[in-house]
């Protein structure tokens, strides 16, 4: 029952964080709309500073939007009953890890593997693009010019 109680607490914290992020992103969008509608007087240095500030705010909003997406995914996993289960090894994700990062989908061991081998997820699911040239299909006949093939007949 302790794990179930912990998951209920995490559900409440995910909902609270989602509300907080939605409010913050709405404010950011409103500020951006208000800024584009007003022309600020000033020299080119002021304009460059404002442009840099807008770029930073945009990047921070992108990070918040990404976190919001992960939270939404976690809430769906809660409804499906798969929250707290590692997507890679199907083991239980420790509650301590979920407390630290409530929207995680993998256990710490699988996360370390993914960081150690960046293409780990590709290997797990398979990438058929590397098997054949994706620009052509297998049904298309391929023209082969025998003059372009080099054969060493000296042996």
Describe the 3D structure.
Helices cover 61% and strands 0% of the residues. The model has no long low-confidence stretch (mean pLDDT 79). It is built from five helices and no strands. The protein is an all-alpha fold. It has two domains: 1-83; 85-131, no CATH class.
Name its key features.
single chain, 155 residues, mainly alpha, 2 domains, 61% helix
Map the helices and strands:
Elements: H1 2-37, H2 44-80, H3 95-100, H4 108-116, H5 120-125
Helix pairs in contact: 1-2
Shape: flat
**What sequence of helices (H) and strands (E) makes up the elements?**
HHHHH
Strand content: under 5%
Q: What level of helicity do the residues show?
A: 55-70%
The span between the termini is 75 Å
Radius of gyration: 25 Å
Task: List the uncertain runs.
Answer: none
Largest sheet features: none
Number of strands: 0
Mean pLDDT, all residues: 79
| Count of DSSP H/I helices | 5
Structural class: mainly alpha
Q: How many independent structural domains?
A: 2
